[in-house]
């Protein structure tokens, strides 16, 4: 976000909200910390994600069905969400050698 502001660069976020989702789930189940600490940290992570999505010029989640809902729920505009599917279809793209990793 700093480069976007200082150098007028585009901010593209590749994310599938696993981090935010996993943090929220962990804070919900972690009983060793007091509730107030867990709640504060969960709100901090959500606020950081909301600021990032608000500033992002483009968000590219790896799934077009479920994860787009997370980006929209966290405040990103639907018209600038462009899903990118993980992996390659080698039948379409082709390989440079016979050996596929």
What would you say this structure looks like, in words?
It is a single chain. With 101 residues, this protein is mainly alpha-helical. The chain has one domain. The protein is built from five helices and two strands. It has a two-stranded parallel ribbon. Helix 2 runs antiparallel to helix 3. The longest helix is centred in the middle third of the chain and has 21 residues, at 35-55. The chain is globular. Residues 97-101 have low confidence and may be disordered.
Fill in the keyword field for this structure.
101 residues, mainly alpha, two-stranded parallel sheet, 5 helices, 2 strands, 50% helix, globular, disordered C terminus
Query: What's the quaternary structure here?
Result: single chain
Beta-strand percentage range: under 5%
What is the tally of beta strands?
2
Amino-to-carboxy terminus distance: 35 Å
User: What structural class results from the helix and strand content?
Assistant: mainly alpha
> Helix segment count?
5
Helix content: 40-55%
Mean pLDDT: 78
Please indicate the count of domains. Answer: 1
Give the radius of gyration: 18 Å
């Amino acid at each position: 976000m700093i480069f976007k502001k200082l150098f007028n660069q585009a901010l593209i976020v590749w994310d599938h909200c696993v981090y935010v989702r996993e943090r929220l789930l962990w804070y919900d189940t972690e009983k060793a910390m007091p509730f107030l600490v867990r709640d504060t940290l969960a709100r901090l992570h959500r606020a950081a994600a909301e600021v990032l999505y608000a500033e992002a010029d483009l968000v590219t989640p790896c799934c077009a069905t479920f994860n787009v809902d997370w980006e929209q729920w966290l405040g990103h505009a639907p018209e600038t969400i462009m899903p990118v599917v993980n992996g390659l279809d080698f039948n379409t793209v082709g390989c440079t050698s016979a050996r596929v990793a």
